[in-house]
Amino acid sequence: MALAVLGSSTLAAAPATALEVNIDLSFGKKPEKLLVIGHRGASGYRPEHTLASYELAARMGADYIEPDLVATKDGVLVARHENEISGTTDVADRPEFAARKATKVIDGTSLTGWFTEDFTLTELKTLRAKERIPQFRPNNVIYNGRFQVPTFQEVLDLRARLSKELRRDIGVYPETKHPTYFRSIKLPLEPPLVRALTKNGLNNRHARVFVQSFEVTNLKDLSRELRVPLVQLLDAEGAPYDFVASGDKRTYADLVTPKGLKEIASYAKGIGPYKEMVIPRGKDGNLTSPTQLVPEAHKNGLQVHPYTFRSENNFLPTNMRLPGPPSVHGNAFAEYEAYFKAGVDGVFADNPDTAIEARSTFKR
């Protein structure tokens, strides 16, 4: 999964709006306001990782928009949840690219499909995005075929335009996807990411940027190149793939021990845990009591931004679902309130408007 645009002097001087009040970006400190991160944009309403999805998230009031970054054959960073794109584009229906179908091992898992690293940017731009989970988001299907795969630079350009138009700095929260894999095929993600942030005036302490990764090594490398806060993503199972590839036996469970959190704090300013690491669900599918992850992270000066909050019944705790099929929106407000009470500092939300409404009524 989500972390991390912002910050020219011109934009910084723009008048604040109500949504900006009391945001504290001091590294290692809890923000005064819960952050709402538009997960892949407003992906509950538009196909994910499209400019339309990011724009809608910003217009709904999201503090940050979140592009996942992968590379093209010619080394351009583009926004896709995975480098395998058959589930998020129309590539499988394009006969001119039929021969590009391949089977690859990505982070230890064999996948068959079409991969961004086998397409130049020009070729990739001929494809059109589609809804990834139409069974839960049937309303998004009407937008299939309308949008291109955006480059990271296009996301940054959109951020700059909307920040001026909406008169508030809109943050960006990029994630490096499969960095060990991309490095192995000589398409490392880190150099173009650093170049893009620097070129756009965003590699500084005052830029509203987080950079996130499920791997550790690349975040440590980026900590020497970037002046923006980094976020260590955490899964409930398994291990960072760079650990696996190097023979390091540690797992994500090791990273959330007091010793592990202390190490994370040496190179990052936050963690992005799978949300059930903060509040587990019981056998009945309902939320139980919060773990000690949030207070332990805060002891180490780490912000906590769990993922992913979605409004559909299918993704909610059992007792927060409303009558109807899995695609019906349930009582997402109750889930947000539980996590806000647990002390999280921000949330990755597919429905930013719902997250913002929940925040508006919560007294911290």
Protein model, in words:
This protein is of the alpha/beta class and 364 residues long. The chain contains 13 helices and 13 strands. It has a four-stranded parallel beta sheet, covered by helices on one side. It has a four-stranded parallel beta sheet with strand order 9-10-11-12, with helices on one face. A hairpin with a 5-residue loop joins strand 3 and strand 4.
Structural class: alpha/beta
DSSP strand count: 13
Count every helix, treating DSSP H or I runs of 4 or more residues as helices: 13
Give me the strand/helix succession. HEHEEEEEHHEEHHEHEHHHEHEHEH
* Rg, nearest Å: 19 Å
- The general outline is globular
Task: Quote the beta fraction.
Answer: 5-15%
Features:
alpha/beta, four-stranded parallel β-sheet, 364 residues, disordered N terminus
Short description:
The chain has 364 residues and is of the alpha/beta class.
Reconstruct the topology from this structure.
Blueprint: H1 9-12, E1 35-39, H2 51-60, E2 64-66, E3 68-71, E4 77-79, E5 102-106, E6 109-113, H3 121-124, H4 152-166, E7 171-172, E8 175-176, H5 179-184, H6 190-199, E9 211-213, H7 217-223, E10 230-234, H8 241-246, H9 252-255, H10 258-264, E11 270-273, H11 293-299, E12 303-304, H12 332-341, E13 346-349, H13 352-360
Parallel strand pairs: 1-2, 1-13, 2-7, 3-8, 9-10, 10-11, 11-12
Antiparallel strand pairs: 3-4, 5-6
Helix pairs in contact: 2-4, 12-13
